[in-house]
């Protein structure tokens, strides 16, 4: 027999209960300002609201990353539609620019998420992450993001952060240096580094150009920044980017990418269907938003990667600015080494994306199957317990009634239990006096002990207890009269 | 030895140890069981009885049966604390002090005639018994678990002895008396010990790991809420008794619950009953009571006071029958609390 476990009372605090965070902790809401160089203002404001809610509620804090992905995806999707629709965007080399900026924004919010987590743990190096995110596209609002990050960091002993000087913080040289140097550095970099055109400033193509398949110039060898810069203007006579397929790493088949993306989406649906059911409650708003963020991220990544790999006409990454490769059919100058390298690199990224999809798919399926199996086991384990509960409860009740009736009956003939006597001791005393009743008394006391003090009984025990009660009740009239001295006691 | 589980362990483990000790100590199963319960509850035992009643044999037999390292220290007035705990010795070759562990670094320490040592030496045991460690020259040395002190003292002879202070007594979970054997038991003992003393051939029937596992299992034995109140009520009544100057404290309640759990576990039960508590109470409570002068003059021992306390405290049993006679079986309206716990 194993010892029954005493259930520990869990905290009654709901997961979304507001926390008593200090005002400075809401400095986290300023962190998304670091992304103003990439994302539209409305998206940054939504991110600020999200990070602020994360301070207030642990539930929102859990959902920060995926909901931030949703917001970033929404910004990209909005811009994609603003370009003149998906079909036009697919024909446009702007898609590569969007893909790069989208990846930068995703990495940016992931960096902010990580930085916020570090800062909430009181680690200063979270500020470096915010700074790194901001320097992807430096702009003056980065300073405010850093100030917010410094504010939100709690002290070592979890008191209110005192760097503002309210709680008697000593303004030592070290403190000043720690604050001044990063701020000065950020300020200098914010103005000194070239600014890429943010996503929300990329101009949509004129309808005529989009129809004609004229391309905005794609990314150059200088990376995302220069790609964005070059995409601000779109010369009306810009030729289509040519496709390089020789002497480069080939791009993965687009069909494979599509299948992988669809598999991931299906696996995600499976997981989302199981998760709330496993918890025994409907999904919360935060969970829906997290799921939507993940879904949108995967869809956008799929669409952008698909579009980039086809380049509007299929067959590889559209490389640098060059001559038309398709419609005119004229072969121009061979691609340069730089073009080949860039194309190989981008194709490698696509292969990586494909592997990433497959890995995510495998993980999601594994998680879903694990959850489903766990739920099945729980259900199977719960069924016998639930089925047995009324029986055991009934058995306990029957034993309790049998014992109480017997004790009452014995008390009625002057052989009651003394207050200090245990059931076993009482049964032993009576058994010594009344050997005829020894067996039923001992049996009743033995069966009663688990009922009263924490064990379990079966229906057979209950039957035996009731039989013992009947035997004792039947023998009561035949008991010898109680001695006067005994009665006096 | 196979690994024992909490469910299968009690009958086999307990039976083997009790049978093994019974080869040496005839007819003392009850005191052996209580001593084993004390060890299972993680406590220390004080054996108080006349010389030659088997106190040392009980300690040695328990140590041998449990497979624990055994040390014996004969407490005398000139015994120093460092003779028990260990001492730092200067090593000229290395120019450093090296700690040489004393006999306390063992599994079962037999502190024979503990009341013959000075209070200073007796107190050297306090830290080891309470916290399982020894501090020497500012350095703390942990004792290996399980660590049990079994001390003996002669209650009759007081000349040249130092009465154990209350703080020291409180460290002992149980005070037991082995008692003289009956005539029949003594005859059996004479026959058994005629040639070779069985203590020399006693083999271990458990390992220290088994003991640790058993101690862990004992702590998981369920104690109902009203039984906890019963235990606390007993301790409180010792404090209110007119013959007691200083009654049992919270440590006494904890000890009483622990020994009751161990007794329940030894009987293969996963829950404690009031019988376990009542069986453990004299050994756990009596030596912790500081009796008033009147009690000493009357010759009332602590055990008698505990007996009175047990007779005064109501046992938690089923609530009395309702007015109008025996109750009838009725439909269940709610799941009992005990079921909802599990």
**What would you give as the CATH superfamily of the largest domain in chain B?**
P-loop containing nucleotide triphosphate hydrolases
Order of helices and strands of chain A: HHHHHHHHHHHHHHHHH
Predict the CATH topology of the largest domain in chain B.
Rossmann fold
Order of helices and strands of chain B: HHEHEHEEEHEEEHEHHHEHHEHHH
Main sheet: strands, sense, barrel of chain B: 5 strands, parallel
SS field, number of helical segments of chain B: 14
CATH class categorisation of the largest domain in chain B: Alpha Beta
Report the sheet with the most strands of chain A, covering strand number, pairing sense and barrel closure: none
Distance between the termini of chain B: 32 Å
CA gyration radius of chain A, whole angstroms = 37 Å
> Average pLDDT across residues of chain B?
80
Task: Calculate the mean pLDDT score of chain A and round it.
Answer: 68
Q: What shape does the CA trace of chain B take?
A: globular
At CATH level 2, the architecture of the largest domain in chain B is 3-Layer(aba) Sandwich
Structural summary, described in words:
The complex is a heterodimer of chains A (489) and B (342). Helices cover 62% and strands 0% of the residues of chain A. Chain A has 489 residues and is mostly helical. Chain B has 342 residues and is α/β, with parallel strands linked by helices. Chain B has helices at 9-22, 29-40, 55-66, 81-85, 119-131, 166-171, 183-192, 208-219, 225-240, 250-266, 274-285, 293-298, 302-312, 337-341, and strands at residues 45-48, 70-74, 86-91, 96-101, 108-112, 133-136, 139-142, 148-153, 174-176, 244-246, 290-291. In chain B, α1 (9-22) packs across α2, α8 packs across α10 and α9 (225-240) runs parallel beside α11 (274-285). Chain B is globular, with a radius of gyration of 22 Å. The chains are: A mainly alpha (489), B alpha/beta (342). The A-B interface holds A 1-7, 389-390, 392-394, 396-398, 400-401, 403-405, 407-409, 417, 419-425, 448-450, 452-455 and B 6-7, 217, 220-224, 227, 268-275, 278, 310-318, 320-321, 325-330, 332, 335-336, 338-339, 341-342.
